[in-house]
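Reviewers of the previous submission asked for a worked example of the structure-prediction workflow described in the proposal, so we include one complete record here. The input consisted solely of the amino acid sequence. No template or homolog information was supplied to the procedure at any stage.
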Amino acid sequence: MAQKTMIQAITDALAHELENDPNVLVFGEDVGKNGGVFRATQGLQEQFGEDRVFDTPLAESGIGGLAIGLALEGFRPVPEIQFFGFVFEVMDSIVAQMARYRYRMGGTRQMPIVVRSPFGGGVHTPELHSDNLEGLIAQSPGVKVVIPSNPYDAKGLMISAIRDNDPVVYLEHMKLYRSFREEVPDEAYTVPLGKAAITREGADVSVITYGAMVREAVKAAEKLEKEGISVEVVDLRTIAPLDVETIIASVEKTGRVVVVQEAQRQAGVGAMVMAEISERAILSLEAPIGRVAAPDTVFPFGQAENDWLPNATDIENKIKEVYNF
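From that input alone, the workflow returned the following structure tokens.
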């Protein structure tokens, strides 16, 4: 077992599945010889050949259409959308085609496609590169949406996603790619889709979040522990479908909850989590549900990014507000 970054864990997962199943294909813009813009596919073309790992034209709509055609012919495509802000060019393929095929064909066809894409703030990318658009896909029935927060989960979730017979949108937060390492097994293993994780046990307040905000929530929790406030951190890992059972169990345990997302406040995943809690566990609450999210504005240019993004201090302040209600 070695210490690996999240991007190394993702590369490992892709290599395992390319080796495990000859029907797995990896393709996208610059994923071949260059290994992708973040080098997530580095070395895979050399190892598995140009027929298994290959470049496509700069046309996201074409990448989506190719994935659908290959899936219908029995392959397990893993296309990359170079940045998730470009998803608008391939929305029809994802939400109007991939997501509906099983229903449309009466269960006789499958869409075992994993759409990989980097996203997220904190790395000062240009416009449309950092946007948090996961809520657009999470609202679409028939597509699973996975967002890992650490290297171990990244590898296990990727392998599970590739082996799944339904379409999965797998989002990789750019700030997490190389920001830390943790132990990741060398062998293949799976982490179940649709199952949240308790990242940190606590008794006073539950923080429910995903992606890069998990690390921010843990920072806030560690600081507040010194002040006598015990914070439980729940990492959703999969935002569609939500693991409502784990969410409700944590809320019933602590009686107070803060929901955190990096995306803009309006119509986000956090709102869905809050609605589920309100419907299923409102009598367990000792305080109104707290929410931390980005402002309802366009993602700002790099110089304003740090002021715009939610952070550990924002989470800490909201936890205190809910705790002291």
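The two ends are 45 Å apart (CA to CA). We consider this example representative of the routine output the project will generate in years two and three.
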